[in-house]
Amino acid sequence: MPEGDTVWQATKRLHAALAGRVLTHTDFRVPQYATVDLTGRAVLDVTPRGKHLLIRIEGGLTLHSHLRMDGTWKVFAPGRRWSGGPAHQIRVVLGTDDRTAVGYRLPVLELIRTAEEERAVGHLGPDLLGPDWDADRALANLLADPARPLGEALLDQRNLAGIGNVFKSELCFLLGVTPWLPVGDLPADRAAVLPALAARLLEANRDRPVRNTTGRRNPALFVYGRAPRPCLRCGIPIRVADQGDGSRDRPTYWCPACQTGPAPTPAHRHPRL
């Protein structure tokens, strides 16, 4: 599931493959840009912004994409078979003399003026892996709506950018509270460490192929994806439920013994249990 660390890794691969090189082939497989040809333009840089990815191209253009739940960018050497999914899932192809970048299942793909990037990403809060990271501002954003459940506040990219379902669940476990606890009820000592803890988790995982929050090889995560297996701390079975308005699949994991605070009723539990 793409989160800030995943986008960081994708950006690093794309920057290494494309930055400073001239595009020799482009193919947009979305109706809006079907006739666009960027051949002959150089790629200037590739930059992450939270869970958004910005490919800046000569001539004042930026290709903006968002991976959401299952989008991905793959980079291939000449002659290598493309392996990111079936051909009908390809949304864009950017080729140079020695590398080809292929975007699969990208729900957001738009070509904008570089000078207008703020229109696409200006709403985002401080980026956990970016140069604009500001822990105090992120905490103030989270606390601005004290009645909001912590898990929902962490997923709101306007508060802080880069957290998805996995890090939301892991952060709440490490803080010892359920994702349904109102932000305003978070004890002051835990609220004070939340931004630094979030940044530390993403920084520790930005160069790892497999996320790890436990410091162990197996299991690598404390709660996410582990229901109904026993909690690593207390042995009680981990639980899972959907969180949010139901418009997206947001499976949320927690330990009912190690984490204090509200929890969903059995009727709202995830069908996996």
UniProtKB/TrEMBL annotation:
Its EC number is 4.2.99.18. Residues 222-260 form the FPG-type domain. Keywords: DNA damage, DNA repair, DNA-binding, Endonuclease, Glycosidase, Hydrolase, Lyase, Metal-binding, Multifunctional enzyme, Nuclease, Zinc, Zinc-finger. The keyword DNA repair applies. It comes from the Bacteria. The keyword RNA-binding does not apply. It is an enzyme of class 4 (lyase). GO terms for molecular function: class I DNA-(apurinic or apyrimidinic site) endonuclease activity; hydrolase activity, acting on glycosyl bonds. Residues 2-103 form the Formamidopyrimidine-DNA glycosylase catalytic domain. It catalyses: 2'-deoxyribonucleotide-(2'-deoxyribose 5'-phosphate)-2'-deoxyribonucleotide-DNA = a 3'-end 2'-deoxyribonucleotide-(2,3-dehydro-2,3-deoxyribose 5'-phosphate)-DNA + a 5'-end 5'-phospho-2'-deoxyribonucleoside-DNA + H(+). Belongs to the FPG family. This is DNA-(apurinic or apyrimidinic site) lyase. It comes from Streptomyces griseoviridis.
